[in-house]
Design brief:
The strands form 2 sheets. A 4-stranded antiparallel β-sheet has the order 3-4-6-5, covered by helices on one side. It has a two-stranded antiparallel ribbon with strand order 1-2. It has 2 domains: about 10-130 and about 190-220, no CATH class; about 135-190, no CATH class. The protein is built from 6 helices and 6 strands; from the N terminus they run E-H-H-H-E-E-E-H-H-H-E-E. With about 220 residues, the chain is of the alpha+beta class.
Length: about 220
C-alpha cells in the first residue's frame, strides 16, 4: 500500500492522533507467522502480510528521518512530539519500499535499522502516519457515507440537502484522522516482527522517479 505521499514543503510539527488509548490489542511476534501457517492455502496471503509489515517500517523510517538531529533541541520537545518532513514520502510493496526525497543513504540506513528495532520494541505509534494514503481513502469513504446518510435523513428541499451535505462534510473531516489512524493501526500496517533488511539502493520507481529502495526479507 501506498504510503506517505511525497509533497514538497518545509518541516512542521504535527499533533497527530495519540494511540496510547488504542493499545487494547497487543501485537504478538508470532501472529503473522501463525496466521500464515494456519491459512497457508490462501493465495497471496504471505504477500499481504508482508506488505502490512513493510508499510509500518516505511512510516517509521519517514518519522525518524524527519526528527531534528540536535539532542539539545530534542530535550526541549514535549513527550510524544513528532515532526513531519513533508518533502519525504514513500511507497510500499511486498518486497520493500521506495523512499522519495533528498536523503543521505547513511541516514536512511540508520533510520530503517532504528525504525525496525523501535517498532519491535513496542513504539507502535511509529507505524501510523498522517499523510498515508489510507487516511485519504478513509476520508473519501466517510464523506460519501455521511453524505448518503444525510441525504436520506434530511428533507428533500434544496436548502435542507445543502445543509445536510455541509454537516456530512464537517463530520467526516472531524472523524477521518481518528478512523484513518485506526485503519492504519489494525488493517494496513503490522509490526514488522518477520522482516530483516536486505539492501538499500538508489534506483527509480516504475514511473521513473528517483528514489531509494529498501529491500527486505521475510524471516520465518
Amino acid at each position: 500500500m501506498n504510503t506517505s505521499v511525497p509533497v514538497q514543503g518545509n518541516s512542521n510539527s504535527l499533533d497527530f492522533v495519540n494511540l496510547d488509548l488504542l493499545d487494547f490489542i497487543t501485537p504478538q511476534p508470532n501472529q503473522d507467522k501463525e496466521l500464515l501457517a494456519l491459512l497457508h492455502f490462501v493465495p497471496g496471503l504471505k504477500e499481504i502480510l508482508m506488505l502490512r509489515q513493510v508499510h509500518a517500517l516505511e512510516h517509521a523510517t519517514v518519522w525518524l528521518l524527519s526528527q531534528p538531529r540536535s539532542s539539545r533541541f530534542i530535550s526541549l520537545l514535549p513527550r510524544n512530539f513528532q515532526v513531519d518532513n513533508e518533502s519525504l514520502g514513500g511507497l510500499s510493496t511486498e518486497q520493500g519500499f521506495f523512499l522519495y526525497g533528498d536523503v543521505n543513504i547513511s541516514d536512511l540506513r540508520r533510520a530503517v535499522t532504528n525504525g525496525l528495532q523501535r517498532l519491535k520494541d513496542g513504539e507502535w505509534n511509529l507505524a501510523v502516519h498522517p499523510r498515508c494514503g489510507t487516511n485519504v481513502s478513509t476520508s473519501m469513504l466517510l464523506t460519501a457515507g455521511c453524505a448518503v446518510g444525510m441525504h436520506l435523513i434530511m428533507p428533500r428541499g434544496l436548502i435542507e440537502q445543502l445543509f445536510g451535505l455541509g454537516i456530512a462534510t464537517t463530520l467526516a473531516g472531524e472523524l477521518a484522522p481518528y478512523v484513518g489512524a485506526l485503519a492504519q493501526r489494525y488493517l494496513t500496517t503490522s509490526v514488522p516482527f518477520n522482516l530483516s533488511i536486505e539492501s538499500i539502493t538508489k534506483t527509480r520507481d516504475m514511473w521513473g522517479r528517483e528514489a531509494h529502495f529498501v529491500k527486505v526479507q521475510w524471516q520465518s
